[in-house]
Design brief:
Largest sheet: none
Number of domains: 1
CATH superfamily: CDP-alcohol phosphotransferase transmembrane (TM) domain
Radius of gyration: 18 Å
Shape: globular
Structural class: mainly alpha
CATH class: Mainly Alpha
Distance between the termini: 38 Å
Oligomer: single chain
Number of strands: 0
Helix content: over 70%
Number of helices: 8
Order of helices and strands: HHHHHHHH
Strand content: under 5%
Length: 213
Amino acid sequence: MPPESAESRGPDRRPLASRSTPWAQWLAARLAASAVTPNQISVLSMLFAAVGCALIALGRGPIAWLGAAVCVQLRLLCNLLDGMAAIEGGKSSPAGALYNELPDRVSDSLLLVPLGYAAGWDWLGWLAALLAAKTAYVRVLGGALGQRQDFSGVMAKQRRMAVLTLGLIAQSVEAPLWGSRFALFTAGIIIAAGSALTCWTRTVAIARRLEAA
């Protein structure tokens, strides 16, 4: 599989340095050569998110928290490989854009809503999930207005999932030591606040580009 080029990235594709890593290119090449489709990989990302959802909502120990963190990262791995198999691997489909967006929105909610319940603040998970969806809405809105999609911001998807992963790992240590849920609460607050800020900065950037056009 050739190195990623500016043409393969495109204006509406999330910039990811991991696409250029040898391991990612090797995995994507194997998938491109197989019968697996990029859309199936996208659906698989939701399945990993669903397992993570169950572990966060029902788990009561370090193994559950760590298992949920692994599911978050497997979801992101699917998000990386579906695009690479489609674009670099030449397996894109007319419905690819739909499968690229919808599973992401479902996966975000599956992972963030139970975070609030697990932390003991039900509203926090719903707020984080809503604001995460809004960051994608603003990005796609910019594209609908004729601009390149803006993937910038302090709490874009990869950063949201990084914060969630760290929060789950920290919780696996905190729970057996103190029996509290401060790590989960902190992760939820950071994700919600960062997502709100990302919505604001993306909206301002879109408005400025529209005014300058």
